[in-house]
């Protein structure tokens, strides 16, 4: 038997797998994968606009030197608009289902975004390929569906790359199976060149998004997190909740911010029926706080990746936190819990079966997700 941690909605018994991200114990070994974003772009808080929106196709890149692309240049205050929203440039939101591969899915989303910016179309890369090779970086002899660190996924994406989803599909029973030779051969053509570690500094995180780069991050979440299921708004953990409630970890991808909302726009991995079409809004005070979040990284496919800025949007009129329909955020009724569940090893693959939790409650794994 193994222990799996889920966030459970007690109203409909939907379960969402947690603890898929393992905090990194070290930085990546290669220099190009351990750059600090703060060493390349530094802007004061009053230089950042409340919103940037890169939803339409980008126009031609500006002229630039051979030594520094636009995305690594120091910017002036009049070069930045008031909001960033990269959602229209993202591929479809994924559903991790019963696997623990949220870290791989977050970074796969970032990589697919880079491919779409370069090629102009959606390209679906293999999440299980990235997840397997990330875990193999830690211990190739023991591959289990127990999560992975950002460092290991980033190193694997630079060394092995990733193949297309069509070649190594998201087949849950194969979560611990090594991809075939054809997958590794194709993956040689899909690698990253560098990665940037972000400090948990609000100005730095907003700047990264304003430059057109989403960033993956780990977050400690509490049972109130699932209030975002219907409204998309994640509540700030209260002091009482932090003191008495069980929490777990999860990986997500920040794809925008709004000063009007005082929140980051984040892409989850629980399908498009969760939150606001698979996305949610998390306050600045939650994400830019190292007590709640950890391991924030942005990746680049090419050293010359330049996202431009012609499509920035100065309209930041939507308040995602307080708009109509967000009544659930103020609902104090307790309908959620984080629960450890004992699972038979033979049932971890996602096959139909019965899971017994610590309280003896039977849960049918096949009905946990839409």
TrEMBL record:
InterPro entries: Papain-like_cys_pep_sf, Pept_his_AS, Peptidase_C1A, Peptidase_C1A_C
Annotated transmembrane regions: none
Region (Disordered): 347-370
Bias (Polar residues) ranges: 358-370
Example of a GO MF term: cysteine-type peptidase activity
GO biological process, one term: proteolysis
PANTHER family: CYSTEINE PROTEASE FAMILY C1-RELATED
Pfam families: Peptidase_C1
Record PROSITE patterns: THIOL_PROTEASE_HIS
Designated name of the protein: Peptidase C1A papain C-terminal domain-containing protein
Similarity comment text for this entry: Belongs to the peptidase C1 family.
CDD domains registered for this protein in UniProt: Peptidase_C1
Residue span, Peptidase C1A papain C-terminal domain: 80-296
Record lineage: Eukaryota, Metazoa, Spiralia, Gnathifera, Rotifera
């Amino acid at each position: 038997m193994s222990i799996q941690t889920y966030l459970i909605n007690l109203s409909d018994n939907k379960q969402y797998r947690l603890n898929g991200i393992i905090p990194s114990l070290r930085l990546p070994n290669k220099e190009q994968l351990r750059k600090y974003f703060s060493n390349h772009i530094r802007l004061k808080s009053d230089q950042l606009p409340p919103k940037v929106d890169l939803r339409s196709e980008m126009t031609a890149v500006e002229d630039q030197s051979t030594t520094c692309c636009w995305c690594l240049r120091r910017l002036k205050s009049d070069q930045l608009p008031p909001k960033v929203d990269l959602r229209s440039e993202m591929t479809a939101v994924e559903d991790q289902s019963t696997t623990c591969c949220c870290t791989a899915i977050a970074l796969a989303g970032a990589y697919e975004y880079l491919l779409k910016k370069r090629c102009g179309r959606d390209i679906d890369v293999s999440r299980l390929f990235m997840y397997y090779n990330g875990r193999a970086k830690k211990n190739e002899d023991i591959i289990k569906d127990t999560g992975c660190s950002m460092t290991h996924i980033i190193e694997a994406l630079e060394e092995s790359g990733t193949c297309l989803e069509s070649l190594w599909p998201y087949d849950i029973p194969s979560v611990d199976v090594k991809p075939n030779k054809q997958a590794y051969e194709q993956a040689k053509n899909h690698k990253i060149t560098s990665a940037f570690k972000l400090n948990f500094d609000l100005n730095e995180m907003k700047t990264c998004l304003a430059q057109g780069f989403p960033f993956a991050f780990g977050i400690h979440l509490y049972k109130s997190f699932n209030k975002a299921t219907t409204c998309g708004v994640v509540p700030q953990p209260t002091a009482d909740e932090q003191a008495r409630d069980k929490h777990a970890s999860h990986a997500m991808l920040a794809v925008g911010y709004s000063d009007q909302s005082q929140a980051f726009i984040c892409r989850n991995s629980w399908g498009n029926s969760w939150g606001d079409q698979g996305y949610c809004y998390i306050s600045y005070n939650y994400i830019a706080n190292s007590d709640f979040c950890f391991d924030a990284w942005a990746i680049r496919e090419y050293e010359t990746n330049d996202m431009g800025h012609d499509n920035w949007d100065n309209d930041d009129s939507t308040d995602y936190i307080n708009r109509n329909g967000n009544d659930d955020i103020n609902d104090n009724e307790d309908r959620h819990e984080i629960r450890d569940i004992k699972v038979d090893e033979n049932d971890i693959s996602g096959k139909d079966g019965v899971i017994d939790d610590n309280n003896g409650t039977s849960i049918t794994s096949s009905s946990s997700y839409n």
